[in-house]
Structures are given as C-alpha cells and as structure tokens.
Amino acid sequence: AKFTALTSLLVLSACGGNQAAGDDEQKSTGVIKADIGVISYISGPGAAYGEAITNGLKLALEEINNKGEVELNLVIEDSAGKQDQALTAAQKLMNSENVTAIIGPTLSTEMNVVGPEADLNGVPIMGTSTTAEGIPQIGDYVFRNSLPEALAIPAAIDKAIEKFDAKKVAILYGNDDVFTKSGFDTMKKVAEEKGLEILTIETFQKGQSDYNAQLTKIKGLNPDLILASALYNEGAVIMDQARKMGIDVPFVGGNGFNSPEVIKIAGDAADGLIVATPWYGEKDDQKVQDFVSKFEEKYGKKPDQFAAQAYDALYIMAEALKNAGEADRDALRDALAGISGFNGILGNFSFDEEGDVVMDPTVLVIKDGAFKVLE
Ligand code: 1QQ
What is the CB neighbour count within 10 angstroms for residue 340? Predict the structure, then answer.
C-alpha cells in the first residue's frame, strides 16, 4: 500500500519472471531453488566483520545444499561499510528476479538505509550482525538474528558491577554511527537504572586515531569501569592507548568489540574487555563443536560471533524457504516471521512479534589474549 511509483516498478520487474521460473523448477525437481543476496562489509577498515560473515554463510551453504532439500545460491556484494554502496548493492539484488531474500548488510548504519528500501520493495532482508535498537521495527520484511545491544549491554554491565563492585563509570562512544550511538543510549540508560555515577561522556568519530584528550580526562576522573561503544578498529586503538596511559580498569563493550580483531590489534591491552554474546566457541555442545572444527578445517581459523550468527542465519533462511514451499518473496517473509524454536549453534532461537531476537547472552572477558567466560 505504501509503494512509491519507482519501487512499484522495481517490484513488478522483480516478480514477473521469478515466480514462473521457480514454479517450473519446483515441479520438475521438487527442490526449492533460490538466490539469496548478501550485502557484506568485505573491504575497508571493518572488513574482518564481513569476512567472518561470508565465511559462515559459505560453510552453511555447502551443508544445506548437500542435504538436497533446498538449493541455494549466494550472490555476494561488498558494501565496504558504506551506506551508499550498501544501497546500490541492495538495489542491484532487489532488481534481480531470482533473488528471493537478502542477508545483511553488516552495519546497522547500512541497514538504516537499506532496510526501508527492501521493505518497500517487499524483499525479505535479515541482518546477521545489526544490533542497534529499532532494526526489525523498520518494517515487516526486516529481520535480524543477531543479539541486540539492548540485550547484550545490560548483561555485560550487570556482570561487571557484580565482579568489580563498580560504582563510577566513564562512557566513550562513536557519535557518527547508528550502532555505536544506539549502544551508547543503552549504556547510559542501564548505568542510570543501576545507580552508577556517570563521571563523563566522551565521543569520537570513525577512523579517529588519537584518543589522548578523551582518555586523559577519563583517567583524571578515576572510574571503576569504562563503557565503550565502538566498532573493533576504533575500540582496539582506544584500549591500546588507554593501557599505555596507565588506565587499567575493565572496559565493557558492545557487539562491535566481540571480534578477535580487537586482540589482534590491541594485543595485551585488550585484556579486561567484557562483552556479552550469544556465541561461545568452547561450549560443550556437539553442534557447536562440529561447526568449530568444520570452520577451522575450511578457513584455517576459529569462527567468531559474526561467523556463527551468519551460519545460523542461512539455516534459518533455508528452514523458512522449506516452510514457504516456494521461492516467493512474500511467502518467505511470512515463513521467516513464523520461525520459532529454531535450534542452531547459538542455541534456541525465535523471533518476537516484531521480528526481533529472543536469546540469552553469555558474558565473556578477554584474559591472557583470549575470550573466556566471566564466571
Ligand atoms: C551493528 C553492529 C556491528 C558491530 C556489526 C559489525 O552490531 O552495526 O549493528
């Protein structure tokens, strides 16, 4: 009902051939075939997020196609972490008649512009790493399977208060990104609710390399904890500079910090970082361990949260396609909305009525250069 002239054209051209071709194929083979578009941050400063995501998707793709119930094909586009490039990629994918749904984009900042377009065009879209407030609420066609900051941050802060008897905090956040701003909003809200004293709120921008001014001020105020809302490249540099200045209190970060890149960039300085995540690779669970060993065999490194979330996402997509019974965008949207009690490597997963995630996080801390459960 709310289609603009331009988007209706897109929808018409996108749906025409697709339905007919899909029906023929299904009749002859019984197997539902679909192209899944992927928009991922695979070049630029945050490329490790997109690399992990596309690796997780490709591993799931092999397994799913081997089972033979559905036959998926990934059409992968790079967004470079940029809104305009993500939107161009989305338009290309939406115009392709064989693309039944889109996975991605990587950043909430990107989803904020891509999600409304996909929704208008009636193309189901599912973020696997978009964690800002309000993403699934963009529209009926917009989903995510990533643990939102609104669930991750309270869990991490609670644990940090309990472990370190924290009373005073400093907050540091990127004020030019949808995800880092949203993470900050949650941090501030939780700090206030928990009766923590907020000593100062400092900001930075993407690509910033010198945090001396912010960290000098924070050091002088002597907080018990630093709450930092950042993507890994800025977050790791902040921790490195903080430790060099003699700031040794724990940091609490959001989803952006939950990447092995933080340890790679910051080294020992990453010790004392607390995050909450739905993914823990050491979990004593056969499904998790099978995934970890297959991933390691294929890519020569352990999977991180972003790989794990993407892997589950393609399984959720495949499950929804089976339930939809055809490679049709509207049927797939309805089937996605109906996914409930899906048992993946991230545990038991359901969407709530707004397409948001229902899941329990685990709190981890970096110690001696590795993520460990914070007991
Ligand atoms: C977001 C995020 C980032 C950490 C994804 C890489 O959670 O942008 O929502």
Answer: 11
ipTM above 0.95, yes or no: yes
Which residue range is the domain that position 179 belongs to?
150-277
Is residue 27 located within the same domain as residue 85?
A: yes
Strands 225-229 and 347-351: unpaired
The per-residue pLDDT for range 33-58, each reduced to its tens digit, is: 999 999 999 999 999 999 999 999 99
- Ligand 1 pocket member 131 (CB < 6 A): yes
Q: State how many domains the chain has.
A: 2
Tell me if 225 sits within 8 A of 252, measured CB to CB: yes
- DSSP 8-state symbol, 46: T
Position 371 in a domain? no
Cis peptide before 105 (omega within 30 of 0): yes
Bridge pairing between strands 225-229 and 125-127: unpaired
Instruction: Indicate if ligand 1 lies below 6 Å from the C-beta of 259.
Output: no
Q: What is the CATH number of the domain that holds 258?
A: 3.40.50.2300
Q: Please check whether residue 197 is in contact with residue 224, taking contact to mean a CB–CB distance below 8 angstroms.
A: no
Q: Is residue 366, in this structure, part of any structural domain at all?
A: no
In a domain, 54, yes or no: yes
Q: Measured on CA atoms in the order 317, 322, 326, 332, is the torsion positive or negative? A: negative
Of 147, 170, 187, the closest CA to residue 361 belongs to 147
Q: Determine the 3-state secondary structure of 69 from DSSP.
A: coil
Peptide bond before residue 361 is cis, with ω within 30 degrees of 0: no
Q: How far apart are CA 76 and CA 86, in angstroms?
A: 11
- Do 155 and 222 have their domain in common? yes
pLDDT digits (tens, 9 = 90+) for 152-183: 999 999 999 999 999 999 999 999 999 999 99
The pick from 39, 83, 107 for probing ligand 1's pocket by mutation, whose C-beta has the most ligand atoms within 8 angstroms, reads: 107
The alpha-helical segments, DSSP class H, found in the chain are 5-29, 47-67, 83-95, 108-121, 149-164, 178-193, 212-221, 232-244, 260-266, 286-299, 305-324, 329-337
In a domain, 374, yes or no: no
Is the C-beta atom of 108 inside 6 A of ligand 1? yes
